Task: structure prediction
Amino acid sequence: MQLLEIRKPLFLFSIYTQRLIVIVIVMNAVEMLLYPNPTHDKFIVELEETAYIKLYDILGKEVISQTSTGTAEVDICHLSKGIYCICVISESKVIGYSKIVKH
Result:
């Protein structure tokens, strides 16, 4: 089993507009943007580096895994409504994590 180093965020903030929440996560100077949240069918992850994007359901089952270089569009239209956890991994280290809500 491979162990992943989990880093605590340097800071985390959300930008709220009338209908869109953009989550900005900075983990050890690596910035990740995640939007829109909540969403219906897809969301965007913007990264500064190549990474793996993994999405987990409420039971911890991996439901999506894909590689991203820069900006990635993650299609979740086939998933049920609910709350999912997103984990972004680069070089065996978690560089970002958050929750995403599907309506």
Summary: Residues 14-102 form a domain with the Immunoglobulin-like fold (CATH 2.60.40.3080). The chain has one domain: 14-102.
